[in-house]
Design goal:
Distance between the termini: 189 Å
Number of helices: 8
Helix content: 25-40%
Shape: globular
Strand content: 15-25%
Structural class: alpha+beta
Number of strands: 13
Length: 376
Amino acid sequence: MRQIIFKSLVICMGCLGLANAQSKYKTGNAAKQPATKPATTPATAPATTQQKPATATQQKTGTSRYLNNNANANNAAANTAAATTTNDPASTVPASTANVTVRYDTTIAGAFDGKVEQSLRNNYAVERNLIKDRKPLEYDYIREDDQFWSQFVWEEIDAREKINQSFIYPGKDDNGDQRFFSILLSAIKNDSVVAFSPDNDMFRTPLTADQVNNLTAGSLDTVDVADPISGTVEKVITRRPKFSPDSVYTFRLKEQWIFDKESSRMYCRIIGIAPIAKQVVGGKSQPRTLFWVHYPDLRRTLVKFDVYNPKNFAGRMSWEELFESRFFSSYIIKSTINNPGDKYLNALIKDPLFRLLEGQNIKDKIFNYEQDLWSY
């Protein structure tokens, strides 16, 4: 009986020991949890809250929160960059362009409006002072009642012909380029000669010097020029020519032939000159009238420029003498003789050969009219 009671006491004490052990482990785990919660709670708290069934409103709120966080981050980065730029003056210029300077060149590179370089010494063996004092002779006055017969003629000068090659002579002189078109531009720029719109040949709409320069000036071009020693880069901004200088080789003349009965002779007075450029439009070369210049206004400039003479450089004449003496070759493109429709010959005659023959026929009519007035 004692043995049975002893065994029951041992069993009861064993049960109490297991219970105490389990409570000890639970207490130990509970004591350890506060040490691990601070490390895991911030990272897992958002995920725990998002794992709950969320409505549409809660989802939008969570998305906008992340967008606001990204926007705040971007604003902070922008503010930091602005602060850095403001505090550092050198940071306002990129490192690759910190030493770059920009220079504007107002001349047109390779075109007609180049700078005239003056010789520091006499470029000739003799003193050339007479050309500076030249003045054109005044025209003989023709009374309106004395013009017995009159016709208007439009002609074109093609500088590609051998007799007209002095119009495109590319030589340089103290007064600039010797091309005839460059002389026209020099007269407009330096001698206050007025250019008129190419819309018609009636000299109705004047053009400014800047408008004339824009006719030949093309798009802006930038060239980088680096100094090999200092490494500084200079950007030279200039204008490329719109067309080649050699593409202006045609010049149109408006003339009036008048027979003066008081002096019994035929006069030819040039009224205007217009340069015509060849420009490529749509893959085809088309002529374009640039502007008109009143010839009587141009005479005081032409008298100061000499014409290239391939036979004798000392026997040169002025451009004013060339036009007054008609030392050039031209062909007629329009006249007022038998032309009630006021049309050009290319609108009346399609064949270019027959147009040249008709132009020569008009010249013969003018010549024969003067000759037929005389009787022997």
